[in-house]
Write a structure and sequence with these properties.
The structure is a homodimer. By secondary structure, chain A is an alpha+beta fold. Among the domains of chain A are: about 80 residues, Orthogonal Bundle (Arc Repressor Mutant, subunit A), CATH 1.10.10; about 30 residues, no CATH class. In chain A, the strands form three sheets. In chain A, strands 1-2 form a two-stranded antiparallel ribbon. A two-stranded antiparallel ribbon of chain A has the order 5-8. A two-stranded antiparallel ribbon of chain A has the order 6-7. In chain A, a hairpin with a 4-residue loop joins strand 1 and strand 2. The model of chain A has no long low-confidence stretch (mean pLDDT about 90). The interface between A and B is large, with 105 and 105 residues. Strand 3 of chain A pairs antiparallel with strand 5 of chain B, so a sheet runs across the interface.
């Protein structure tokens, strides 16, 4: 297999993109931090969930903390890096609410008192980040918008600009 | 396996949470819309990528459009529902940039001219959605913050409020 596009999304998904990983984070954010309750609420096989938890702890997304010494019992708490992923879950939840689910199973209020509708905005101007409002600058030599350069057989790859507006 | 928590995140991940699915969206947003180029840029097995594309088309995230009739050739374009997922990719990219990747492989400018830092804000008050600023209201009878009620063996499940602030 040839080398894939260098990409922080792919790197992030290698940590949190496995099946059940983001659902583990959902439970942790809901305050469910013990293995048995996670198994029950997520509906995942125990061995797979245990592997996901190990991976998330190794990657610094969760912290495994003993809450009892005799018998020894652990719970999982989100790290600061883990908490940063709350936004991803809000966006996926809203997308599911809009396009897939009948009645939203969970709704949120924001601290301001309004029903929470999470929007992705630009930290600088405060306006929404919408299709057509973003220009990508590709930093890795040889990898442009269309993929690897110098190009091979496709017209797409032949014109692989290192800068372009996202559609 | 017992019934899992009713959840729009889980529903969304059933569509876009399989390995490679979000990388397909990344390529489509970069303007890479043909199968061969996606295989090359994602580094995914052809049969798996073909299955992911079918699923994304069935779910209404991508549209499969013929761009040539003789020979018959197709490309994949994002639907409006697909474009809504750009924010998820920005957040994952930034998280990877911050925590995993050395030099960001791609950086973005926003239309306002500033380097793009995407933040999740409340549509009503415009302030960031941060840990501790969100109250969840659980809508499905029997499923609260801690999981299913009436509770079983764990203390967590025994107190499963239908409303709580997200940590």
């Amino acid at each position: 297999m040839a080398e894939a596009r260098p990409c922080s999304i792919a790197d992030a998904l290698a940590i949190v993109g496995e099946k059940y990983s983001l659902l583990v984070l959902r439970e942790v954010f809901f305050g469910v931090r013990r293995f048995e309750a996670m198994v029950r609420n997520i509906g995942a096989p125990r061995d797979i969930l245990a592997a996901r938890l190990r991976r998330l702890v190794e990657a610094g997304v969760l912290e495994k903390v003993a809450y009892s010494r005799r018998p020894l019992r652990h719970e999982y708490r989100p790290t600061a890096a883990g908490l940063e992923l709350q936004g991803v879950l809000h966006l996926l939840r809203q997308w599911g609410d809009r396009h897939l689910t009948g009645t939203p199973p969970v709704v949120f209020d924001h601290a301001c008192g309004a029903p929470l509708e999470a929007v992705v905005t630009c930290a600088s101007c405060g306006r929404p980040v919408e299709p057509g409002s973003q220009t990508a600058h590709f930093q890795v030599e040889g990898w442009g918008m269309g993929g690897r350069r110098p190009a091979d057989e496709t017209a797409e790859a032949q014109s692989s600009p290192s800068q372009a507006v996202l559609g």
